[in-house]
Each structure stands twice: as structure tokens, then as C-alpha cells.
Structures
1.
Amino acid sequence: MFKTILFPVDQSRESQDAAETVAKLVKFCDGRLFILSVQVEDKAGAEEANPAPDMIDQLLQTAKSAFAEWGIEAETLHKEGQPAFCICDVADELDADVIVMGCRGVGLTDEGMAESVSNRVINLAPCPVLVVP
């Protein structure tokens, strides 16, 4: 069913909470897990905090270790760009069967909908998207 599973992660609690659902899905489907973190590309004068590459590598290693405790081998990917577009591009490159991601709920308002990464991924993804609230 879902043999290639893409799990985009960031430093949010929602991303961490989705990990258990991902682990269950990987085990149930005997799938291959890819953990992705996207570093937002620097924009001139951008005010938003962007984690340093070594922090992202640490995040990926922590996630990989957590899945290893569940007996799941995972491959990690670190990309730079706009998160929703990178997630969808990687899903396409991997020929992913599903993207599983956490949701902060910012897309529930008209103002937040344009900024919601999960909402953008749902609309752009080349495969099904499972959003874990």
C-alpha cells in the first residue's frame, strides 16, 4: 500500500506528535521511511528565525534515533527552499506513496490559510497527504 513514506519534520510539537502515527504506518505497511527537514531559503531582510544547518542536522538525527527505537530504519534528507514546494518536489523525486505531516492549525482561518504549509502541500502534492492534527 504505502511503501515509500515521506515525513517532513520541523521543531514544532505537532511534528513530534505525528511521529508515533508515522511509526505505526511504516510498520503496518512495511514501508520505507524518509525524514525530511527544509531550511527556509534566506531572503534579503527576512526577519523570521531560521535554524542553522547544524541544528537541522541534529533535528534529523534525533528523529532518526527515535524511529530506530521503534525498530524502523529511516533515511534523512536536508533541503533548502520554500517548505511546501520542497516537500512536494522531494515526494515526486522519491515517488512517495504518502506524505505524513503534523499540522499547527494555522490554515483554519482565512489569514492563516495562505501561510499553512500543510494546506499548500495538500494542494500541490503528487501523492496522498495524511495530516496528523
Note: The longest strand covers residues 32-40.
2.
Amino acid sequence: MAWTYLVLAGLLEIGWAIGLKYTDGFTRLVPSVLTGLSMVASVLLLGLGLKTLPVGTGYAVWTGIGTVGTAILGIYLLGEPATAMRLACIGLIVAGILGLKLAAS
């Protein structure tokens, strides 16, 4: 169950990271509220996952999911560049997440 909490926390981290772009400096109410709720829920789920997972592994996986997801959505939604180097680095982060998952099993 800890890994489920961690993955959900990572997905919510993507939500609040992308949400920050739409808050317009926290001047737009609905995006700001949704972003804030995503932040709180993400950290709460991370905390639940860390009850049984090692903190280094859990935190690295959480931030890794957030980083990869945010970078991909930045490319897809926000028109950020999808250079070969950028995609290769995203692949390295995914490899690191998988390695940490395997090492914690």
C-alpha cells in the first residue's frame, strides 16, 4: 500500500507543479485553491508512504515522479522544447526511479 500512496503523491505533485503555472501568481482563485489542495494531499500521501518505506527512497521516487510528469506535461501542454538531451535526461530519471523501487523490494 505504501507504493500506492507514493505513486498517488507523485501524481498530485505533478498536478500542483503544473497548477502553479495556471494560478498566475496565485491571483486566480480556482487554480490557486486546486493547486493548494494538491500540495497538501501530495505531502499527506507522501507521509503515509514513508511510514514503511525508507525516507531516501520514498522522497526520491516522489520527486522523480513529479519531475518526469511535470517535464512531460510541460512539453505537451506548455510547448516546452522536447530536445533529445531533455528526453534522455527524463529517461535517466525514470531509470533511477525504477532502480530505487527494485532496490527497496
Note: The chain has four helices and no strands.
3.
Amino acid sequence: MQLELTADEDGTQRYPINPIHDCDTAYLEVAKAEERPLLAKAEVFLADDSNDKVEEGYIDLAKQSLFKLGVALRASEGRTYEGPVKMWSEDMATKERTQVQGIDDEVIVSSSYDVPLFSYWLRKGNLPWADGHTYRIIVMGQWEGVDVELGHADEPSYCLKREGDLVTLFRGTPTQIEGVQAFGVRREGCRLVVSGSGTRTVRLYNANGQLVRQISTCGKQAVVSLRGMPKGAYLLRLEGKRNGCWRILWDGR
């Protein structure tokens, strides 16, 4: 006796089952496995004038005149994506979408290696983002004739904000990017001092969405140490009676 699983004719797999005694009643329960997401990776990043990823997560246009916005794609194990890829930026206030010029490609993405795509060169004079605005970065594809967002729906979105000469890319929940005034955050040297009644948990994420600090508190103040952390952009998330998020730019000093 054997169990045969078939996705298609070429993908049939056979699994032997241990001998079953003829006096016993055999029960075989087959459940459909959870389908892997189409893409295992859809990482948005900033790139410098050598097309290298900017690990700090921000560009200072006063020091670097040219940069690109990029995305690295890789399919889940056993899956392949073949189709168009476009990138859009959505203003969080107005919901207006603007296509990121240069990322408009037909690609084949497998699980073997990353496929990087880059925008055209960006400089201070041609930025499509308004000063002081926050944008959600959307990577779009097409699957079975339907336009879809590429990436994991349950992961934080990639967001971009321009503040004068500073362009910052970070991950967070778009509806909570702007700080809620129920809390106060100030920097004292290499410490962040969080104040506000009802604060329960303080979490600090790096630009890749990884949790790097977590503090639980039932008081009115919490202190988050930045000592020893790489310089770059971070997202500080406060949870309590009300929630809030702040972007933190850490210069390593």
C-alpha cells in the first residue's frame, strides 16, 4: 500500500506506508498542506551610486547626490513567479499613488537566488516624494491574470519618508507611523526616555523589521538603551492604553 500525492503529472510523489495487519481496521487521514506564499522575499531597500544596499536605511542628499530605490525578489521553495513587477509609492495622507520610475519589468523569479530590480537614478531635483510626507512602498505583480501585491501580507509594510535632505526607509504599520501624542519620547545621550501613563510595552525594530529591544513597564517612564547598536534608522513602537510609533535616527554616538 502506498500514498500517492499529485500536484501535476511531473510532480507526483509516492510514499510507502508500513504493512497493515489484515485483522485491523486502517484509517488514513489526508489533509491538504498549507500552501507556501508565492514569494519568500520581497525586500525593498535604498541603494547608493554603486548599486550597493544602504545598510543604515537612510540617504542624506546633502552628502550623497545620487541613489536608487530597489527590491530583491526570491520565490518560495518549489515555486516560481513569472510576470510583471512594478513599484508604487502611496501617500499615507492622500492615498495618491505614484509609480517609481525604472521598476517596470518582466521577470522570472525562482527560489535559487535573489532577483534585484532598481529604479532610475534619484536626486534631490527629481524626487517624487513631498517633504514631510510618509509613503507606503508597494511592489505589484500579476498572478493568474489578477494584480497582486508581492510579499507577505502579515509582515510590516515598507514605508518611506522625506524630511528635507533626509530620505528614510523603514518597516512599520502604516496607520501608526505618525506618533500619538499620548506618549513622549526624548533622547538623552545613548538612551531613549519614553514617558506617558498607561505604557505597557516598548519595542524597538531595525530597518529590516527585526525586534532588537523590548521593555515591559507598568510605570510612567521607560528607558531604552541604544549603546552598541549600529547607526541607522529604527522604529520605536509603544503599546498601552494608546499605541504610537516613532522613527529614530541613531548616529552611533
Note: Residues 174-181 have pLDDT under 50 and may be disordered.
4.
Amino acid sequence: MSPWLVLSIAGLLEVAWALGLKYSDGFSRPMPTALTLLGAVASFVLLSRAMRDLPVGTAYAVWTGIGALGTAILAVVLFAEPVNAMRVAGVALIVAGIAALKLA
């Protein structure tokens, strides 16, 4: 499997466990807590596998970028977080950074 695909899946799992933190309610709800921890472990394992073939700085930056981008978008959708020009600009910069690292 392509290391970029593995890294993308790891990034999506980062989104899942980041949102899971909200649903776990401070780790007080057992099922969301278990799913959050499982997602985090899977995300880290896949990130480490992607780093076998990708530069560590690039892999980590793309992984966190996917996580930040996905979490920011889903927070608006799921939790009605506000959307304003500054937030949209920040998300656009994350996308630009991920694209630049992928091309580098």
C-alpha cells in the first residue's frame, strides 16, 4: 500500500479520535472513550508505518494538517462552531501547506 494512502488513513483516524475526545466527555463515557483510544492507537501505528518511506517532518506535518483540517470542518458541522473569515483563511492555509509538502 502506498505510504501516502497509509498516511491519509492515519490522518482521517486522527480526525476520528480528536472528535472522540469531545464525545468521550472527559473520558467519562466508556464506549466513546474506548473508540477514541482505539482510533488514536491505530492512527499512530499507521503514521509510524508511513514514516518508513516518507520523511518524518513531511509525514508528521501532513498527518497533523489532515487532522486539523478535518476536525475544524467537522466541528462546524457537528457542533455548530462558528465560521468566519479568519477561520476559513486558517483552513485554507492548512490545505496550502499540505499541498506544498506533498509536492516537495
Note: Residues 56-79 form the longest helix (24 residues).
